[in-house]
Sequence to fold (335 residues):
Amino acid sequence: MVLLKIIEHYIELLIFSIVAGLLGSLTGLGGGTVLVPLLTLFLGIPIAYAAGASLISTIATSSGAASAYIRDKITNVRIGMGLEIATTTGSIVGSLTAAYIYAHNLAWIVYVVFGIVILTSIIPTAQRGKYEIPDPRKPDWTTRVFKLYGSYYDDALKMEVRYWGVRWWLGELIMFFAGFISGLLGIGSGALKVLGMDWAMNLPMKVSTTTSNFMIGVTAATGSALYWYFGYIQPMLAAVTAIGVLIGAMSGTKILVRITNKQVRWVFLAILAFLGMEMLLKGLYLDHIITIAVATQYILSIIFTAIVMTILYYRYGVLMARNERRTAVRGDGNA
Fold:
């Protein structure tokens, strides 16, 4: 009976990990942003150990998904390598901060910070969804010095997409914060990495998500070394989640190349809304600031997600559809 429960537990871990890896690969989140809430909220695993397992699985995600994206020539390795300097530095600072928090029984702070970080990234990400390919910005000095340009063939659009990035300095600042959050929360911080490249540097969403997948492995490896030192990594838990996340990540790479940037973005936003609110409520509940039952927290998070997605759709989705119709009309007229 005990053996069956153990097997059932690991099967649940594997299933949740596959889902996290799939979503992480599609959105550039790296799996950890989804995996940590799933493990803590649904399986009751302490957040310190969930974060440790997440960092290991994030390395697996990056290794699996990034290799496929590099083969498809969507990932910009040069930009990713330049930004990793800031993310690894931030990861060290974040991991040391996490060790202090867990040692002093202040885990609720991590939940609240997690929720706030996710929720505050929704609006900037939605605002970028007006166009399939971002409006080009005038190249600046960082574009030339750091060679922030490239191209890839988009199977969904059936065209070669050429792009260039700007504001490398702003991207580096956001990447340091992303690295700090990665070490603090035990995630790849793909949401912030995507935001940094998508919003700050004006790169296409697919380039941002695939380059994020490439970067998160290095960031997670830095943080996981410190998590291992402090004893927050359980080998079996980390092994099962790593296998599941890798399976999901490899499946995600086959889907991403066949869908549009806009479709990726809407999936990304829905995940952010639900998990952000759920983690925030969990943190407030642990500190006894609110006394809402766990089941009610799930319901409130679902309702919140529905409201946010409805507002975003009418605010940005309808606008995108109108722009597409106008572009199509102008194209027919010119023809």
Q: What stands out?
A: The longest strand covers residues 149-154. Residues 294-334 form the longest helix (41 residues).
